[in-house]
Specification:
Helix content is 41%, strand content 26%. It is built from three helices and three strands; from the N terminus they run αββααβ. It has helices at residues 2-12, 41-45, 50-64, and strands spanning 20-25, 29-35, 69-75. Strands 1-2-3 form a three-stranded mixed beta sheet, covered by helices on one side. The radius of gyration is 12 Å and the shape is globular.
């Protein structure tokens, strides 16, 4: 799923080389920390948070197949 997050985010930003995804795995929950260039943060959040909400929905659906919970955090 880490590759899914990287793929989606890199397709949306202007500086894909600065995208960094860190995976912290627990028993039932996996946390993904997403870092990117400061200028691209607005593109990932989207208008009223629609873009990040859509990415989180995709991750939740993919995680449901594995009976896991996924949290996506945006870091500066």
């Amino acid at each position: 799923m880490k590759t899914l997050v990287e793929y989606l985010v890199k397709a949306l930003v202007d500086k894909p080389e600065e995208v960094e995804v860190r995976e912290i795995e627990g028993e039932k929950t996996t946390v993904y920390e997403l870092r990117m260039a400061k200028e691209d943060l607005g593109k990932i959040i989207g208008r009223e948070g629609r873009t990040i909400k859509a990415i989180r929905t995709l991750l939740t659906a993919a995680a449901a197949k594995e009976n896991k919970k996924v949290i996506l955090e945006l870091l500066e």
